[in-house]
Amino acid sequence: MRSFDTTIDEKLFNLLWRSISERESELECNIERSSADESALIGNDLVYLRLCKNDLKDKAKTANFSEGVFSLEEDYIDLSEL
């Protein structure tokens, strides 16, 4: 398995968190609309996504990110400092 390390700030983390959460919602909807075989495959993806999401959450808490980074509000994200 290949991997890389990178440093992200709270704004970028929030952008990733929103994207992952949106994908999670899409997968949940797809499970409801799919056949049993497709639902099983989508379910596997959903489990893996949630494991990754939990790992990211733990790392954000370890880095002392504010609780705001987990916000799913549709507010404007100020990217001017990036």
Care to describe what's here?
62% of the residues lie in helices and 0% in strands. With 82 residues, it is mainly alpha-helical. It has a domain at 10-62. Helix 1 runs antiparallel to helix 2. The two termini are 30 Å apart. The model has no long low-confidence stretch (mean pLDDT 89).
| Unreliably modeled segments | none
Proportion in β-strands: under 5%
Count of discrete alpha- or pi-helical segments spanning 4 or more residues? 2
- The SSE string, one letter per element, is HH
N-C termini distance: 30 Å
Please supply descriptive tags for the structure shown above.
82 residues
Question: Would you kindly provide a brief summary of this structure?
Answer:
This protein is mostly helical and 82 residues long. Helices cover 62% and strands 0% of the residues. The longest helix has 27 residues, at 36-62.
Secondary structure elements and their pairing?
Layout (H helix, E strand, L loop, with lengths): L9 H24 L2 H27 L20
Helix pairs in contact: 1-2
